[in-house]
């Protein structure tokens, strides 16, 4: 064996220092905190050339300032009892199990983005020989080896960017789910208002029916009416009682749903709002669509997924690059030979080595790259699909809001006053014996249906505005509609 000078452990220490260095400088701080939603999104064109097209990085997204909306949508009105709806919304944001799960998934994705670009752990090994290796310089009874795998560094950087965009996507999904939960809370709250008004109307009509039955009994006593009038009134009273039971059961169901959304016990009582006064927003469908494209977190999540998949194409392309393994070996040698002028007795040999992978299976790497490109195409198409869906949804919800608003105004200005006048006139006429009792009952049924329909239209308008707020990604006003209480 060739004589080597005594070198201690310098090669091992040098390689350990190299292996401990970070592979890349991260493009984000180690403590990322909540990832700020991207203001300007990059919608990638299908299947760009990974070698020529510049891929937007997470730092590029953060560098853009949020473009202010050209449309002002007034903040949500507070309700009576004071802050009740706002309190329910806050409780849902804090306690809703699905929001909690998405938040934990987001934190998991943030943690992943902080390690995915680092080098693999180095390896240290020791071999003990059963029979010592006898050399001219001495006996070798063991050897030690240290190795460090070094992937292609550009691939590590691409992996990091993909992980960061995945974390942004989950954060946007969390915001989208928060909007959905908020809309569900508001919808249930408005449903409580409608049911409370329906119960009040039914109870008021019970008193009206009882007074009509009393009038019928008085007329029977004078021989001016038949027993059939009382029986008809009693039948209507029973049907109204059945309707009241239905309304109360529906209220329990809505209350239970609100408690589920806010993570409260199912039997917790929630007071109904006493007034609800929605009006239409000034923005048209085209303006609201522009707001949604800027603010809707579900669209933002799809755009982030598109960018993550584009970095996935880059990762797949770089899979063709070789990986390296650097190693150092050390062979402790016994000083158990006579002095020699040819070899250094007891000298410990050491060696440095390098290995490289040879990516020769072209079809395999073609398939890996094609898989990534198809995923990128699918993610890109999801952005277009969501854009079209929200555009259609906003048009539909705005049309429904206009329909509900016009219906409520028609009830308020024309139909309900006429129905009340008709019932009052026929009640007086029945007392005078000029109309039949069944006509008064028809008037009563008509007024009951119209009063319920009026408050249902108000509830439909408020519900449409809640869903429009969800679709637009920001709040829409609920302010005064004259005479809605």
TrEMBL record:
Keyword Amino-acid biosynthesis listed: no
Signal sequence, start to end: 1-22
Molecular function per GO: efflux transmembrane transporter activity
PROSITE patterns recorded: PROKAR_LIPOPROTEIN
Coiled coil regions in record: 237-264
Entry-linked Gene3D superfamilies: Outer membrane efflux proteins (OEP) (1.20.1600.10)
A Pfam family this chain is assigned to: OEP
Keywords on record: Coiled coil, Signal
Family affiliation: Belongs to the outer membrane factor (OMF) (TC 1.B.17) family.
Protein's UniProt name: TolC family protein
Organism annotation: Bremerella cremea
């Amino acid at each position: 064996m060739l004589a080597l000078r005594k070198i201690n452990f310098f090669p091992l220490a040098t390689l350990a220092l190299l292996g401990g260095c970070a592979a890349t400088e991260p493009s984000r701080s180690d403590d990322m905190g909540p990832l700020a939603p991207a203001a300007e999104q990059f919608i990638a064109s299908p299947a760009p050339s990974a070698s020529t097209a510049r891929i937007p990085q997470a730092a590029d997204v953060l560098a853009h300032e949020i473009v202010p909306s050209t449309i002002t949508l007034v903040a949500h009105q507070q309700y009576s009892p004071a802050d009740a709806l706002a309190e329910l919304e806050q409780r849902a944001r804090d306690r809703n199990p699905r929001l909690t799960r998405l938040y934990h998934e987001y934190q998991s994705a943030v943690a992943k983005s902080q390690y995915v670009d680092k080098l693999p752990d180095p390896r240290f090994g020791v071999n003990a020989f059963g029979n010592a290796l006898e050399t001219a310089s001495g006996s070798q009874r063991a050897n030690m080896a240290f190795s460090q795998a070094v992937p292609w560094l550009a691939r590590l950087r691409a992996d990091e960017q993909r992980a960061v965009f995945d974390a942004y996507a989950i954060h946007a999904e969390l915001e989208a789910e928060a909007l959905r939960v908020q809309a569900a809370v508001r919808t249930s709250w408005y449903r409580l208002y409608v049911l409370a008004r329906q119960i009040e109307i039914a109870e008021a009509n019970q008193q009206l029916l009882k007074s009509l039955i009393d009038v019928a009994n008085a007329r029977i006593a004078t021989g001016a009416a038949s027993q059939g009038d009382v029986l008809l009134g009693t039948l209507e009273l029973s049907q109204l009682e059945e309707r009241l039971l239905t309304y109360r059961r529906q209220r329990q169901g809505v209350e239970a749903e609100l408690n589920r959304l806010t993570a409260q016990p199912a039997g917790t009582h929630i007071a109904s709002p006493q007034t609800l006064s929605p009006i239409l927003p000034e923005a048209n469908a085209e303006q609201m669509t522009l707001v949604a494209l800027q603010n809707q977190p579900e669209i933002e999540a799809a755009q982030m997924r598109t960018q993550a998949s584009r970095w996935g194409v880059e990762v797949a392309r770089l899979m063709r690059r070789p990986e390296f393994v650097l190693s150092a070996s050390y062979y402790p040698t016994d000083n158990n030979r006579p002095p020699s002028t040819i070899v250094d007795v007891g000298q410990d040999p050491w060696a440095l080595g390098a290995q490289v992978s040879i990516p020769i299976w072209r079809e395999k790497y073609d398939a890996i790259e094609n898989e990534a490109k198809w995923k990128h195409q699918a993610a890109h198409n999801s952005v277009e699909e969501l854009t079209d869906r929200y555009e259609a949804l906003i048009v539909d919800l705005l049309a429904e809001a206009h329909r509900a608003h016009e219906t409520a105004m028609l009830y308020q200005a024309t139909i309900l006053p006429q129905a009340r006048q008709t019932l009052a006139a026929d009640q007086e006429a029945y007392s005078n014996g000029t109309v039949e009792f069944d006509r008064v009952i028809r008037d009563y049924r008509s007024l009951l249906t119209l009063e319920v329909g009026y408050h249902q239209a108000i509830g439909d308008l408020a519900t449409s505005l809640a869903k429009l707020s969800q679709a637009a990604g920001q709040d829409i006003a609920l302010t005064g509609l004259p005479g809605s209480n």
